[in-house]
Amino acid sequence: MSTWKDKLPPMGTLGPFLALLGACAFFATQSQNFLTGGNLSLILQQVMVVGVIAIGQTLVILTAGIDLSCGMVMALGGIVMTKFATDLGLPPALAVLCGVGVTTLFGLVNGLLVTRVKLPPFIVTLGTLNIAFAITQLYSNSQTVTDLPPSMTALGNTFSVGGTEVAFGALLMLALYVLAWFVLRETAAGRHVYAVGNNAEATRLVGIPTQRVLLMVYVIAGLFYGIASLLSVARTGVGDPNAGQTENLDAITAVVLGGTSLFGGRGVILGSLVGALIVGVFRNGLTLMGVSSIYQVLVTGILVILAVATDQLSRKGGR
Amino acid sequence: MSTPELVMQARGLVKRYGQVTALDGADFELRAGEILAVIGDNGAGKSSLIKCLSGATVPDEGEILLDGRPVRFRTPIDARHAGIETVYQDLAVAPAMSISENLFLGREMRRPGFLGQVLRMLDKKRMLQESIARMQDLKVGIRSMTQAVETLSGGQRQCVAVARAAAFAQHVVIMDEPTAALGVKEGNMVLELIRRVRDKGLPVVLISHNMPHVFEVADRIHVARLGKRCAVLNPKKISMSDTVAVMTGAMPPGQIPAEYLAH
Question: What is the tally of structural domains in chain B?
C-alpha cells in the first residue's frame, strides 16, 4: 500500500531545492539587481565550471570516496590545452583533446592507486592535488596563457533568449547533468556505482566487478574535469595556472549541499547542480550586497558543515 | 527404494593454511530436495568445507562434483555461474537500494529493443513485477518492493537475501549462519522460508551453530570433526545432546548406534 507520502521525494532530495529557493528569496529582498535575467544568467555562467566538476565529484563520493584533486587537475587540463594550442601550434580541437586526455589520465592514476594499491582516496587525491598543482605551475612558468584561438573559447559565447544572454557552456553543463542523471538512474552501470558505495562487499559477492566500477568512476571523473577545463578556458578567455583553487572545495561543497552522502551510496546527481547553484547564488548575492569575499568563504564553510551535519544526523536518527 | 539423487558431492578435500590442516580428506554429499545441516565445533573444518563448496577458497586436493560432473571454482562468481548461490550471515544487501534492486543486483534486466540495447535502459517495471512474483512465491510478506532495504527489520532483510539466492540458484543454496544475527521471531521467519525453498525443490546446505534451528529444519546432519566428515546423523532419531556428543568427540563415530545414522 503506497500513500501520498511515498510519492513525495524524500527530504534529502527536497531540502537542497528549498534551500536554493530560500537563498534566492533572501537575496531578492536584499538587492533589486538579483532577480534580473542578466544576473541569473551570470550566475549560471559562474557556476558552469564548478557544476561540471561536481558531476565527477558526485560519482566519486557516491562510491564513498572523495577527490581532493579535482580543481587542480582541471587547472592543469586548461594549461595543457592552451599551451598546446599556442606554443606548439596544435589545431584547437587536438589541443583540447590533449588537455582532456591529461585530466583523464590523472583520474586513471587516482583510480589505480585506490583500486590496485588500496590506498584511501583522501590520501591519494591529496597527493595528486599537489602533483597537478606543481606540474601546472612548472609547465606554465606561473604565467597566464593568452592569445588563444577563438574557437577554443566558443563555449563562452552567448546567445540571446528573450533579451537575456545565455552561454553555450551553461547549456553544455545542463546537458551533461541530464546525461549523468540518465546513466546513474536508468542503467545497470549507474546502479552499480550506488551499490559499491552502499555495501562494496555485498556487491562483490553478487558478482559485480567492484574494482572495475571504482576505477571507471575515477577515470570518468577525470574526463569531466577535462570538460570543466575547457569551460574554464572559455569563460575566462585565458589559460590560468591559478584556476581551480576555489573550485576545488566549491565542487565538494556543491555535492554535499546537494544531499549526496559522504558515506557513499546515497544521493541524486541533480542535487549537485542545485548545490552548485546554491554556492553560486551565495557568492553572487553577497557580492551584490557589497559583502567582502572573505565573508563569502566564511559562509561557504558554514554551509558545508551544516550540510554534512544534516547528513550525519539523518543517518543516525531516521533510519 | 532407490538411492536418492546426489546433487553435490565432494571427495577427499584437503585444505592447508601453512602448518594448519583445516580439511583433512573431507567428504560431502548433498541429495536432491533436502536440507542438509552442517555442524561442527570451531576449527572442525566446517567453514573451510563451505568455502570450498561456495568457491571462496580453492581446495589443495580432492574433487567437487555437481550433478555428477567435476567442477573447479576459483571464485564465488564461478560457483554462482554453476548455479550455486550463497547467503551470508552478515546481511549482504545494499541498504539504501530498493528490495527489487537488491534482488536483481548484478542480474539486471534491460528493456527490449533500442532503449535497452543502445541506451542500455533498465526494465524497472519488469524487475518490479518479477520481484513481487518471486516474493509471493516464497510467501514473504513485504508490502512494497520499492522500499529501501534499510527500512526492513533484520529478519526481513535476510529474507530478501534468501529470496535472491532461491530465485537465481539453479542447483544449490548454501546458507552460512543465516539466523545468527537475528532474534527468535525473526529467526523463525527465516527458517520457515528455508523450508519453502526446499519444498520448491532446491536443496539447501545450512551451516548453523544453533541446535534447535538445525533440528527444526534439517533432513540430515553432516557433522564435521578434525577436518573430516565424522558422521551423517538422522535428526528424527538422535537427540540434541547425543548430537553434541558426536560433534565434540565424546561419542566416537564407531560407537554411534546405527539407528542414529542417516541413510
Answer: 1
- Residues A196-205, mean pLDDT to the nearest whole number: 90
In this complex, which of B76, B97, B108 lies closest to A205 when CB atoms are compared?
Answer: B76
Task: Quote the domain boundaries for residue B252.
Answer: 6-92+172-260
CA A283 – CA A296 distance, rounded (Å): 6
Q: Write the residue in B88, B94, B108 that is nearest to A188 by C-beta.
A: B108
Q: Please report the domains of chain A, with CATH numbers, ordered by start residue.
A: 12-312 (1.10.3470)
**pLDDT confidence of A316, banded at 50, 70, 90?**
low
ipTM higher than threshold 0.85: no
Name all contacts of A312-318 with Cβ < 8 Å and 24+ positions apart: A314/A11, A314/A12, A315/A261, A315/A263
Q: CATH number, domain at B185?
A: 3.40.50.300
Q: Is residue B137 part of a domain?
A: no
Cβ-based contacts of A319 with chain B (< 8 Å): 150-151
Do A251 and A231 form a contact (C-beta atoms < 8 A)?
no
Asked if residue B115 belongs to a domain, the reply is no
Size of interface A-B (CB pairs under 8 A): 69
CB A142: neighbour CB atoms within 10 A? Answer: 10
Residue B165 lies in a domain: no
DSSP track, A43-81: HHHHHHHHHHHHHHHHHHHHTT---TTHHHHHHHHHHHH
Among the partner-chain residues A1, A6, A203, the one whose CB lies closest to the CB of B94 is: A203
Residue A62, chain B, CB below 8 Å: the answer is no
A208 shares contact with chain B (CB less than 8 Å): yes
B72 shares contact with chain A (CB less than 8 Å)? no
Query: Half-sphere exposure of residue B51, counting CA atoms within 13 Å on the CB side?
Result: 14
Q: Which residues of A touch B109 (CB under 8 A)?
A: none
Could you report the per-residue pLDDT of B25-81, keeping only the tens digit for each? 999 999 999 999 999 988 888 989 998 999 888 999 999 999 999 999 998 888 988
A265 contacts B122? CB cut-off 8 A: no
Q: Does B116 touch chain A (CB under 8 A)?
A: no
Range with the poorest average pLDDT among A36-40, A182-186, A311-315, B249-253: A311-315
Please tell me which residue of chain B has the smallest CA distance to A267: B96
Contact A206 B96 (CB under 8 A): no
Q: Do A194 and B95 touch (CB under 8 A)?
A: no
pLDDT digits (tens, 9 = 90+) for A53-97: 999 999 999 999 999 999 999 999 999 999 999 999 999 999 999
Task: Sort out which chain B residues have CB atoms less than 8 A from A1's CB and list them.
Answer: 143-144
| Residue A68 neighbours by CB under 8 Å, 6+ apart | A122, A125, A126, A129, A248, A252
Query: Residue type at A150?
Result: P
Closest residue by Cα to residue B222 from B246, B256, B188, B197: B246
